[in-house]
Design goal:
The complex is a heterodimer of chains A (about 130) and B (about 230).
Chain A lengths: L10 H15 L11 H8 L3 H13 L3 E4 L3 E4 L3 H25 L4 H13 L2 H6 L1
Helix pairs in contact in A: 1-3, 1-4, 2-3
Chain B lengths: L3 E10 L2 E11 L4 E5 L6 H8 L7 E6 L6 H4 L2 E4 L11 H11 L5 H11 L12 H13 L5 E5 L7 H14 L5 E6 L2 H4 L5 E6 L2 E7 H8 L3 H8 L4
Parallel strand pairs in B: 3-7, 3-8, 5-6, 6-7
Antiparallel strand pairs in B: 1-2, 1-4, 8-9
Helix pairs in contact in B: 4-5, 5-6
Classes of the chains: A mainly alpha (about 130), B alpha/beta (about 230).
Chain lengths: ~130, ~230
């Protein structure tokens, strides 16, 4: 089936984070209309009720607006999108730090390694 | 009122108690997984709902009625083995379903059969196991039923066929129907479930919403199942 789910978190929460990722990346552009619950459920290979719950969660957080008969639309609120990207990137960074600290690196070493990574030549980066 | 209800339901085979005092209520609009190890009573429960068995004591109802002709008119049942007349081809099967079930939608089965690319005069008994299972499911899901009883719909098929089957269930069940799927391949089925019922030695060990089970235990239904039914 199309989307993969891990074993630890409720499926609707994993759907929420996948959809947030699609909103943050622009795969679902601001102001665009989301597919119907049933179509999204089919795409993800999940129960429509579970998809419904995930979409309700996105509405609550203001990233998606529901317009009675027309469907659900991605927010056009630039500030909300910036906040979303910031909170997602903070999460990725804190995971990165947690994992590298677990390998025994100090914060200074992690920062230096990240800096090194960004100054490597473009070709080198493309290989990865 | 629940769509499927059991009250103090018992079924004995001679001295063996296959189901012991089952109390269960399942509502419309839900996809419910019926899971449990071999011999825990899954098929017995489904057969009681379909009037292939009668209770030793207690009660089982579907839409308020005891199983019989009236319930069979609103229940679409997929047994765990080949059940269609094996000599029939697709056209004959379509006529057969049309004659027997008022809720059969031939346009739906025609669509699905052509999408699957099976046509022609081949009798169902000559088809490969995977194709036969798909065809049986297509006819089962082409009824606009109030209840779908699917007994091990994905047992013994390859992963691509499994995906096909789950997708077919998801895209075809009537929105306000109850879908009851018995299986021991929990991982594959879990994403499409609302609720799960665990049977153990003929009793209900657990009946819970799938996501709330994950929230409560931090485990998937499969992970939790392996813990509950540990064999060593």
């Amino acid at each position: 089936m199309a989307w993969n789910f891990n074993d630890n978190a409720p499926i609707y929460l994993q759907i929420v984070s996948t959809l947030k990722g699609n909103i943050a990346s622009g795969a679902y552009p601001p102001g665009s209309r989301l597919p119907s619950v049933r179509d999204l459920a089919m795409e993800a290979g999940v129960n429509p009720n579970t998809m419904q719950r995930a979409l309700a969660e996105l509405e609550r957080s203001g990233l998606v607006n529901s317009q009675r008969t027309a469907g659900r639309f991605i927010t056009q609120d630039a500030e909300a999108l910036t906040r979303l990207r910031r909170s997602m990137s903070e999460q990725i960074i804190s995971e990165l730090f947690a994992r590298l600290r677990a390998l025994g690196m100090s914060d200074a070493q992690i920062l230096e390694a990240v800096r090194q990574r960004t100054v490597r030549p473009l070709n080198d980066r493309l290989e990865c | 009122m629940s769509m499927l209800e059991c009250r103090a339901l018992c079924k004995n085979y001679g001295s063996i108690q296959a189901l012991k005092n089952i109390d269960l209520a399942l509502d419309s609009g839900r996809i419910v997984g019926l899971v449990g190890p071999n011999g825990s009573g899954k098929t017995t429960l489904i057969k009681l709902a379909q009037h292939l068995l009668t209770p030793t004591s207690g009660l089982i109802t579907i839409d308020g009625m005891e199983p019989g002709s009236e319930t069979k008119a609103i229940v679409s049942y997929l047994p765990d083995r080949d059940f269609l007349p094996q000599w029939m081809n697709l056209e004959q099967l379509t006529g057969f379903y049309h004659d027997f079930f008022a809720d059969f939608n031939p346009a739906k089965s025609a669509d699905m059969l052509s999408a699957l690319g099976v046509t022609g005069a081949m009798p169902i008994g000559k088809m490969s196991k995977g194709t036969r299972e798909k065809v049986q499911l297509i006819f089962t899901m082409s009824r606009e039923a109030k209840v779908y009883l699917l007994d091990e719909p994905i047992a013994g098929v390859d992963p691509a066929t499994r995906d096909y089957i789950l997708r077919t269930i998801l895209s075809n069940y009537s929105e306000n129907a109850l879908v009851l799927i018995s299986t021991h391949l929990i991982t594959d089925v879990e994403p499409i479930l609302d609720e799960v019922v665990f049977l153990q030695n003929g009793t209900i060990a657990l009946h819970e919403n799938v996501d709330s089970l994950r929230e409560r235990t931090g485990k998937s239904v499969d992970g939790y199942f392996r813990e509950v039914y540990r064999c060593w």
